[in-house]
Amino acid sequence: MSAELTGPHRRVWLRTCTTLGACAALRVCMVVACVLLSLALVPAAAGADEGTRYTTIDAGVGDVLWVTLGVAAGLTLEANEVRAHSRRGRGPGFDYRVRQGLAVERTSRPRRISDALLWSLELSALSGPSIGNRAFDHDTRMATMLAAESLFTTLTVVGITKHIVRRRRPCSEACAEHQGYASFASGHSAMSFAAATTLAINARSFQWGPRSTRWIAPSVAFGAAAATAFLRIRGDRHWLSDVLAGALIGTATTLATHALRAPAR
Known about the structure:
This protein is mostly helical. The protein is 66% helix and 0% strand.
């Protein structure tokens, strides 16, 4: 006879699984970041392409610290997600009207689909320069490095915002206790729009395809990012203003990272 976990035991089990999952994700992302930085620090081959915005930059100690601290800070904040319940902020009235008008689905299906879309966008942002350029040269390594910097900076900004605002999720009663007050801003929306913005920048910089079809990759990426944000609302994990703020944070952080490190030519 199997006994079901109820009450405090179920909350402890959920918290333990979430913490272990975040720790595993931290290790995986640290390995990925170290590999990307190792490749980026390889000296450029002679005769590097002079046609993109990445030719004039090179990786250094600052990039190593940027990505390493971004991974550590962002995922540490994610693993210790908002346990102080003193703030129960209410959002704008349109948040509640949208939730009432939208048939929210309190099942795992929207969450699973949004997770799959997010991971696909992040993988595409990191591997896009190599696939689109068909050569892992200096410019491709720099583009990959900036993609990692943009994603991990976005993760850190969102984590800090969650801990400062501590807004109650719409599903706070059904969510794990330590996740019920981490609604603003949406991390999935921020990361997906950061990845989509990275893909759009690289599509223009590396001139993916003829000019007449170069809009396809950015359009698909932003469509997937918008679908990710919608599914976070549909799954009752976020309010509308959460995903709008997340989209703004992800886009602005990525644009700022590229503007600071690799200005457009």
